Amino acid sequence: MNSVILMGRLTKDPEVRYTSSQKPVANFNLAVDRRFSKEDQADFIPCVAWNKTAEFMEKYIHKGQRVLVTGSLQSRSWETSDGQKRSALEVNVIDVEFADSKQSAPGRQEAAPAGFAALDDDCPF
Q: What is the C-alpha to C-alpha distance for residues 93 and 12, in angstroms, rounded to an integer?
């Protein structure tokens, strides 16, 4: 089983590009606080979202917003043009949800389309 759930803030707006077959792909880094650290420390997790999720992120998710990301961990390997071998570990995003309370959301946020609900930090459970 390969399942990842992260809550964190985007370090910058998602970078959206299109593949040669015109599929949208969004790359972004998520700053995730370490819960049991005595000092304020965060891990910066590279993430990639595809298709409708990438388009949703481009339109509604921006730098500094807190989001809940679900997906799977994937590793990639490739060789650069000068022959060096490279590898990367990233989260392949399946779903993304707003996680900011309405009071703390950045001013650039637009209303989400039907079917996407913001998480409410004030829930009693």
A: 17
Residue (of 17, 45, 49, 50) closest to 30 by Cα position: 45
pLDDT of residue 31: 96
Measure the CA–CA gap between 54 and 49, rounded to whole angstroms.
Answer: 5
Question: Which of 50, 64, 61 minimizes the C-alpha distance to 10?
Answer: 64
Q: Which string of b and e fits 45-79 if b means at least 16 CB within 10 Å?
A: bebbbeeebbebbbebbbeebbbebebeeeeeeee
Average pLDDT value for residue range 23-42: 89
Domains of the chain: 4-98 (2.40.50.140)
> What Rg, from alpha-carbon coordinates, does the chain have?
16
Over the stretch 71-86, which tens digit does the pLDDT of each residue have? Answer: 999 999 999 999 999 9
Q: Which of 31, 33, 40, 32 is nearest to 11 (CA)?
A: 31
What's the chain's average pLDDT? 87
Q: What is the Cα–Cα distance from 3 to 72, expressed in whole angstroms?
A: 5
